## 1
Amino acid sequence: MKLKNRDILELMEQYHVPGLSIAIIEKGQISKIENCGVLQAGTTKKVAENSIFNSCSISKFLTGMLVITLTEQGLLVVDEDVNIKLESWNVPENEYTKNKKVTLRNLLSHQSGLVDPKYSFTELTVDIGLPSMVDLLEGRTPYCNESIEVKYEPEREFHYSDAGFCIIQQLTEDITKLPFDQVVNELLFKPLRMENSLFVMQTTDIRKVNISSGHNKNGEIVHEKYPIYPYPAASGLWTTTADLSRLTLELMNALKGESKIGISASKAKEMISPQRDKKWCGLGVFLNGQETELEISSLGWGIGFQCMMVAFPQRESGAVIMTNAELGIHQMEGIIGEIYNSLEI
């Protein structure tokens, strides 16, 4: 990394970022973790290796890894009509699903034909409380006040969709008969030693003193100190750079046939392969380049937080950058982009 600690602190001051953590992956292992700043503006609690940030949509990368694990166990099939195994709710049949059905491959690559309703999937409102996935998908909550249905023929267009990952969550719960967070805990968190990862669904879940507050582009604490997105599979993961690096390393190890959770090299390769004609889309991750220069990434952006996971599988290198400030600009245009461009990975 070209940037020195002093340079990072200067960037944090420039962009009004109270705290950040950077984990570097080299030669198939975590080589360095750099922590700077504080968990909450105006306090002295410093960011440490076990400091937990809101990963927002990086949750989708985790969900992709979970789906691949469940396919290896024979519980899911990525190219099967999801309605075959969905029990609590079904994707409504309409003119767009006559010839092609919605599959997990479609949902993971945002090519299902679903379009999230405008202003949907906002942060938790305490007075309203936690939505069930079925109520949410049927449009019975303020978090999504329209029923979810296919708007285009599957595989025709790309539309980034939180609703698609809510369907994956419901499907997971239907086939396992367990809450989503429990499935993730047993299949991913425990075997990968992701000891500082959890799904924050309501304010009572925030018990650890090392959880970061969210801040706006001016470095001020946001109205709800801990903005919560009550959609675990889509955006509910709170974690550390070390834990996210362990998840990234598991994908890299699976590609070499050395998975700890039973993912085969072929399934891992499928996850980071372009889906249909969308070269930038894998299963739960985004792609750039190809072969030895293939870069996989996942970005998180929500109220009070921005973060990024990037990896070069063939080089066995990568990085995880997490911040407790939402700058109002794309990650690559702010402090995360400056740090990314300084990396030698």
Note: The first strand starts at residue 19 and ends at 26.
## 2
Amino acid sequence: MTSVELVTAADVQLMQGLAQCVTATRPDLVNSDATFGELAWNWGKEHVSDGASWRRRLWFSGGHLVAWGWARLPHRLRRSDGSVKDVTGAYLAYQIHPDHAELVDEVIDWYDGTAKNLERTVMPSAADEFALDQWAAHGYATDPAALGDAGSWTQLNERALTDMEQPVLPDGFRFRTADEAGPKAAVQAHLDAWAPSAYTAEGYEGVRRTPAYRGDLHILVEAPDGTMASSTIMWLDEVNRTAEFEPVGTHPGHRRRGLGRAMLLHGMQLVRAAGATHATVACLGAPGHPAARGLYHSVGFREFTRDAPLIKTRAEG
């Protein structure tokens, strides 16, 4: 077992290795923010700006990582429109190998000690009945705000890379890769789609330095005027022959034109050519967020697991 430290790039690689192990045996137990692609994306884009507020602990057995916790403590977000958002609570991303499920109590105790006197949230898999019972025993309850019509819980969707349609773009639009378009265009595409966003050029450099990133699998759609109207990154897990889309976004001025749909179909063809047989993508699952879910369903994705948002208030210890 290691001491409590900040999350490093080497840690993320170990965490991704555990994600691959869980994906191979019980993919429904991969927790929110603990997937192969999500780990690389979150660490890469945020470690420069927010890494000082991160804490982690790793659990090993026989030299292999079998559990980890990544606590994100209060911090300040500076966004692209000049606004500032103060995050006052704590959030835990974590993962435990199914063969070491009992470690969840140690993970919870570590989180409670690390985020003491803060409001604490966590999103275990809704399929992990054992973990949910343990979280409840430690005073965590369903987060009612997260489960409302406009709530923030997520579902993970999957599909096999068979029987895919051909992508069709409107006249004058074309597919590009980030390798072709360059860093400036790739960053601007994300900012346009997700404004206001805390994403920066430095964050993108962090993403590019993660071992899982491939510029040829970072896809953009270029409009006739040169604007990068849509973009997505595909994270290829060669061990499980699966690819994860994260993030996926379209410029507000170019939505409802089929760009996102065409980009997803094109991306699936690329990763299939690279050896993938299966693809996943996450989205908000609450009724008030139908757009992304409808997009993914239109290209054959279907929900196969979801998270269970839990909360523990300061008053609960």
Note: The radius of gyration is 19 Å.
